[in-house]
Structures are given as structure tokens and as C-alpha cells.
Amino acid sequence: MKFFIDTAGLAEIREAAGYGFLDGVTTNPSLLAREKVRDADRHIRAICALTPGPVSAEVLATDTEGMAEEGRRLAKLAPNVVVKLPLTMPGLAACRILRAEGIAVNATLVFSAMQALLAAKSGAAYVSPFVGRLDEIGTDGMGLVEEILAIYKNYSFKTEVIVASVRHPRHVLRAALAGAHVCTMPFAVISKLAAHPLTDKGLATFLTDWGKNA
Ligand code: G3P
């Protein structure tokens, strides 16, 4: 499973890349606003320079032509830009247009298996089901991921599933068990992945024991 970081924070991306297992980055307008970014194009270029992996950059337009135009502009920022389009009917039409021009699309704001099927049929390179937001309204986010993977397998779609809106390491584990292609995580979740109290306790004991021996 590929590990993406879900942030627009350059320091977080740099630190996660330093751990050696960062395969890509996903951003969205809220994440860029959180970083108080004024020049979004410049910021996306800076992110793209930090990783050779795919970097999702989202359009703001909501009509097909506007999304296609913005997508073309974003795709020119760097060779690893993936254009993020909302899963709406105009978004699906824009996806088909960009795909025909060789531009990779990440279909975002996906909350149903039917939406994911439409994204694959429209040629999206990635689809992003938002598991945390579904869990928060009392539905089963990871159940949706399993449904999407089953449908894609039935029809041999090449669209990769990015498990998004991840809240905790258990989401990451469930994503890997389900066979998701990618999990995109906030820095706070990445920081927790290796943590285990018994590892900390065991390490402290080893060091104390060796210290007594000195
Ligand atoms: O980037 C898309 C998605 O991961 C957003 O997650 O935390 O806003 O639900 P969140």
C-alpha cells in the first residue's frame, strides 16, 4: 500500500519524506487555507519539488469547462501534479476531458460505491473515499472502501483507491487489510504509526540493563 500525506504543510511533507516511505501528497483548498497560502500555484510547485510522487491539487471551479481549464493549468505546474475534481456530474465530464488529454485525475469527495464506479468509468486515475467523515455520521467508511475494491476487481478497473479522511492508525490498518492501493494520512496519524508502549518500555529496559552492566 502506498503512503500519501494529506497536508499542504511544507515542513510536515519534508519530515514525512525524511522517514523514507512517502509515496505522494494530497491537498485540498481547506488544507491550503490552513497554511495561509496566498499563491496556490507557487505552493503546489514547492510541494511537487519535495516528492517525485503524485501531488493532488484541487480545482475551485464547479462547471465542466471551468474545471477542465483549471485542471490543464494545474497540470502544467509540475509533471507530478494530479488534478483533484469533485465527484459531481460536471466533475465527471471534466474528468473524461482531462483523461483524453493525458492528465491524471483524482475524484474526490466520494461517499458512495456508485460514485466510485462512475469515477472509474470516467477514467479517473484515483478515487478518494472519505472514510472518517462517513464514520462521523454513523456509517461505515471502511465498508465503503471494501465495496469499491470489490467492484473495481469485478471489472478490472485500473483506478486506484486512495483511502482519505483518515483519523487514526486503525483506518490505515483496515485500508491495508482491504487491499487499498493508497492511504493518505494527516501528519498526526503518520506520527502514531510506529508507536507502541511495549516498544518504548522494552527499549528503556534494554538501556537501563546495559547501564547497570557498565
Ligand atoms: O484530502 C481529502 C481528505 O482526506 C480530507 O479529510 O480530514 O477533511 O475529512 P478531512
Provide structural commentary.
The radius of gyration is 19 Å and the shape is globular. An eight-stranded parallel beta barrel has the order 1-2-3-4-5-6-7-8, surrounded by six helices. It has helices spanning 10-18, 29-34, 40-50, 64-75, 89-100, 113-121, 131-136, 141-154, 169-178, 187-192, 197-213; strands at 2-6, 24-26, 55-58, 81-86, 105-110, 126-129, 160-163, 182-185. α6 (113-121) runs parallel beside α8 (141-154) and α8 runs parallel beside α9 (169-178). The protein has eleven helices and eight strands. The protein has one domain: Alpha-Beta Barrel (TIM Barrel), CATH 3.20.20. The chain is α/β, with parallel strands linked by helices and 214 residues long. SN-glycerol-3-phosphate binds at residues 6, 26, 28, 130, 132-133, 164-165, 184.
